[in-house]
Structure formats: C-alpha cells, structure tokens
Amino acid sequence: MPNYVINKVTCANMDELKKLLLNKDENVDFNIIIPRPEDLDITSGSHSCDIQSRYFHTEEAERKLENDLIEKIVDASEVEVPEILIERQLDMFIKDLEARLSYQGLKLDEYLGYLETDVQKLREERKEQAKQSCKTRLVLEELIKKENLYVTDEELNAKLQEMADLYKKDLEEYKKTLDNNTVAYFENDILMKKLLDFLKANNTIA
C-alpha cells in the first residue's frame, strides 16, 4: 500500500485554482481541499509519541549541524562550476517539479500560469540555487577523493541486508530486485555518511 495520497484538483480556470489552493496568507494549503478533522489533536499523544518527538528533534538538530558544516566548507572553497552542470541541475529541478505537481493533479503549465511566469523565467530564478548545489557536489566529491573514502563490499552488503530484512526477503533475493541506479543510491548513501562522520570529527562550527 503506498504511503502517499494523490489529491486531484480539477478546475475550469486559474482563478478557481487560486480559490481552491490558497489560505488567508496567500499560501498553497492542501488542507483546504482535504481538511484535518477538528477533533484530531495532533499535539497530544502517549509516552511513546514523546520519545519519538525527542528523537526527531535530535535528528533535526543533527541534520542542521551537518548542513551548517557543509555550507561553511563549501563557502570557503573556490570552485569553477561549468555552465553545463548548472543547466543539468535545472533540468532535474524542472523534472522533479513536474512529478510533484502531478501527484496533486496539476500540470506544470497550470502551476506556472498561477505564478504568472514561464519555464525560462523559473530557470533564471533558480539558477543561483542550482549553481550552489553543483558547487556543493563538486566540493564533496573532491573531499571524498582527497580523503580516499570508499564503500567496501561488506558495507554495501550490510546495507542491502538491512533493506532485505525490512522487506522480509533473503539478501540474494532482494539483490535481484535492484537495478544499478538503486545500488548506486545505497553506495552514495553510505559514502555520504562516511564523509559527514569524517567532517564532524575534524571540524567545528563557530
């Protein structure tokens, strides 16, 4: 059973779409379409919920530490980012945006019409962000190379075993369901964790 909800929005024009999606602060709010029940109290919960809350707050703080550390290192690095990499990053952004909009039953043209813009203008608006993303990737790749970080077969198999257990499958059976892109994703996940552990052990945030 999928762990997401597909909300389809059908409207005759953009004015109707705005009325459907915007809250009083002029922000898109899908709770307007599918409201949360008034008697649903999401602030209360059991002791286990409190433990989960503390866990997620800890995770959030850890992610912020990692992001701040990476940002500090990237900002201090001088990197020439090729224009072709920026364009590819923008292509990925547009493709991802289209996919996310489709889950809400919207098309890219409708979304851009609501924003009173077009794809070219959107690309220009996101170009600096795309450039920064590319710079970050280039810096991290250079750090991985410089520190000779790599993923061993044992580490990859341990990760795949973890996933196999999650899906209640034998390891070899689970491996047969994976394509090269998925395996590369897991390898990158392990490699990034190694890099972050190294950076946190050898740097501090002022």
Distance between the termini: 45 Å
* Radius of gyration based on Cα positions: 22 Å
Rough outline: globular
The number of helical elements comes to 8
Briefly note the structural class of the backbone. mainly alpha
Q: What is the number of E strands? A: 0
Low-confidence stretches: 1-14, 28-47
How much helix is in the residues?
Answer: 55-70%
What's the mean pLDDT score? 80
Q: SSE string, helix = H, strand = E?
A: HHHHHHHH
Task: Give the oligomeric state of the chains in this entry, treating copies of one chain as homo and distinct chains as hetero.
Answer: single chain
Describe this protein's structure.
The chain has 206 residues and is an all-alpha fold. 66% of the residues lie in helices and 0% in strands. The chain has helices at 14-21, 47-75, 83-103, 108-115, 119-146, 153-166, 171-175, 180-202. Helix 2 packs across helix 5 (119-146) and helix 3 packs across helix 5. The longest helix has 29 residues, at 47-75.
Topology:
Layout: H1 14-21, H2 47-75, H3 83-103, H4 108-115, H5 119-146, H6 153-166, H7 171-175, H8 180-202
Highlighted features:
globular, mainly alpha, 8 helices, 0% strand, 206 residues
